Amino acid sequence: MTIAKIIGDRDASDVVSCDVTTPVAEAVSILAGKRIGALPVMSNGKVAGIVSERDIIYRLAEKGAACLDLTVEAIMTSPAITVESSAQIDDALSLMTRRRFRHFPVVDDGKLVAFISIGDLVKSKIDEVEHEAAAMRDYIQTV
After folding, report:
1. Phi and psi of 49, rounded to 5°?
2. DSSP assignment of 3-59, as one string?
3. Whole-angstrom Cα distance, residue 41 to residue 15?
4. From CA 106, how far away is CA 94, in angstroms rounded?
5. How many CA atoms lie within 13 A of 57 on its CB side?
6. What is the torsional sign of CA 61, 63, 64, 68?
7. 33-73: per-residue pLDDT in tens?
8. How far is CA 112 from CA 3, 21, 43, 48, 124, in A?
9. Which is deepest, 10, 33, 81, 115, by most CB within 10 Å?
């Protein structure tokens, strides 16, 4: 199964993102207000990086409250590792596990089309396993 299956009903315009010039304090407000863990960071219509709760915590520990006055460009993880919508879910999960991150910008033809989390991928795998189990139960009952 591909990433496209997960994001098929999503609208790219619904992706919550910020610009490289966004102050960290504003990014914190967005993350808290939307109850999300990361934002794709955009520059001239392209994904420049990702700013996550972890990025903010690490900079707070390093610089104190002064980091809130910086722009997200100063603290973001860059370059962002992205996937295309044609990527296999298993491959994306494997990459997230190996690289120890929890969010992917989905980019097709250079454009951000979605932002997915490891939770999205795990939910998809669970749904797939449950569907297969139901099919097996149905098969067994008909035999």
Report:
1. 175, -170
2. HHHHHTT--GGG---EETTSBHHHHHHHHHHHT-SEEEEEETTEEEEEEEHHHHHHH
3. 11
4. 16
5. 6
6. negative
7. 999 999 999 999 999 999 999 999 999 999 999 999 999 99
8. 13, 18, 11, 11, 21
9. 115
Are the beta carbons of 88 and 5 closer than 8 angstroms?
A: no
How far apart, in whole angstroms, are the C-alpha atoms of residue 17 and residue 34?
Answer: 11
Helix (H, G, I), strand (E, B) or coil at 117: strand
3 state SS of 81: coil
| 93-122 burial code (b ≥16 CB/10 A, e <16) | eeebeeeebbbbbbbbeeebbbbbbbebbe
- Reported residue count of the chain is 143
Residue 3's pLDDT band, with cuts at 50, 70 and 90, is: very high
Pairing of strands 46-52, 38-43: antiparallel
Place of tokens 């690289």: 99
Amino acid, single-letter form, for residue 115:
F
Among residues 95, 92, 102, the alpha carbon closest in space to that of 125 is found at 92
